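User: Fold both of these, please.

Assistant: Here is the first one.
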Amino acid sequence: MLRDPRRGCDHLEVLLSLLYRLVRSLLGLLAVLVRSDLSKDVELLVLRHENQVLRRQIGGRPRLDHADRLWLAALSRLVHRQQWAGVFRVTPATILRWHRKLVARKWTYTDRRRPGRPGTRRQVKTLIVRMARENPAWGHRRIQGELARLGYVIAASTVWEILHVAGIKPAPRRAGPTWRQFLAAQAQAIIACDFLVVETVLLKRLYVLVFIEHGTRRLHLAGVTAHPTGAWAVQQARNLTMDLCDRIGTLRLIIHDRDPLFTAAFAEVFRAEGMRIIRTMPRTPRMNAVCERVIGTLRRELLDRILILGERHLTRVLREYLIHYNGHRPHQARQQRPPDTEAQHTRGPAELTDLRSIQREAVVTGMISEYHHAA
């Protein structure tokens, strides 16, 4: 087996550097020996004081390299062992440990070692983690089999180790889908609702009942009131089922929190349409994440930027925003299409030759901008 010539050059440079520093230190020691005792005592006091100042400044032990350790180990042979603690800032155990390392280094044939088994490529590790997260029921052997089908031969123990390092638990402990996976799988059959609370300019509290369809992200503003009751919520539910018309038949689940306004009569309106009721757990907003998100959008894009005068004003502003939200606002979950748009015409960047063809329209009392191509 051929050796790398550069490795030999590196070892030679390290050896020459170490030898050079030792020779310099040895010459310095000889110069000290020929000097008078008084001169050496004075220099020793100066060096000790300087050492104390430097230690206070660095706030800890100095960092020594191999040459420093070798030199201190050699000087320790000239000092009686009982005096080591006063002369050296290192303990006897430290000096002995340095010596053991030098001996171990002497008998370590690192240049004779052969390369071991090559490591797993980063792309394969990423693929393993991706498969585990996309398939909660898959264990490490199932992932190993899928990799083999793709042409990547890897040991099952290696797959297990990669998942362990990534913090992914064994399959039986992560077999259940996350709420995000569950909601995404059932999106076309889910509608969710929640109450939005708005404070007017005179600090009067208004309540808005909001519904949103998960599959299309279509938003429904059922009603606005200052005095919500269970009967009022039931009536808004009935109005919604009539507005949905045929689409109500595609919905199978409704999600809401444990607000006491969502009474048994409210649930019965949707059960009569063949829907199941899912009540979220306490303090678990992720179970109703889509509705929580749209309420946050209403606040950020509209309500935090305008003063509401009263119930009629809030109703008018929300209805204007509803037209913008369902008819124009793009949604990431729908590939940047609005809820009421099934197909969206796309244009290439080369088609935009005149910026004057893009016109802005201010909607919702001028708070929201919409852009259109000129007719």
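And the second sequence with its predicted structure:
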Amino acid sequence: MEFIFGLGLHVIIALFFAVHALRTGRPLYWLIILFSFPGLGSIAYFLTEYLPANKLNRGVQQVSKSALKLLDPSRELRDAEQAFDLTPTVQNRIRLASALDEAGNFKEADAQFDACLQGPFANDLELNFLAAKAKLHNNLASQAITLLTKVREMQADFRAEQVSLLLAKLYAATNNEPLAREEYINALNTFGSTDSKAEYAFWAASIGDVATAKNLRADLEKTWQHWNSHTKALYKPLLNEIDAALEANEK
């Protein structure tokens, strides 16, 4: 009975993570891993997907990634290239494309993502989201908008804030200020996060909407007083950009 109960518990945990994967639009290969290896698969999913998604750990995760990047900025790209050379799966191609995008090789990253979108993962939400980011970096905003619109139509709650903020940047890149503002306001009113306030403030300052930018910057300053040192370090560059944009408007 203990063996059966233990086996059942592994399956229940795997089912829980499978539901989480589906609801949050994680890559479909997680379902194969979770049901093929319920125990180890659940542990892997918890450590690589579920735990990092927890907002309480987001700051620590970002600081850790930044530290590793400073120590060895090309490590992830090297590892991704090696993994793809050894096993040219779609998953490894996605990892390679993401690493290329992070390294600033935007054209190659975009090409790799396009190759991934031609296969059975064409409707994978995470893949489409990452591909849209790469297309923004590669100055293909219109194509990126098409991908993100598709993501939103397939699952409205998938990375809802990030999709809204990315769409805002894309509309701004195509000089569509009304839709850009609509997306920034949607993100701000729905989530009210530091990211939504900071990115909206920077965009507002960049187009000369000084009043909106100053109001948001003042709100961020109030929040700043309650941040720990790690959070301040994460957002300091963006806040400096907002201040620089505001100063440019005063000249």
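Residues 2-23 form the longest helix (22 residues).
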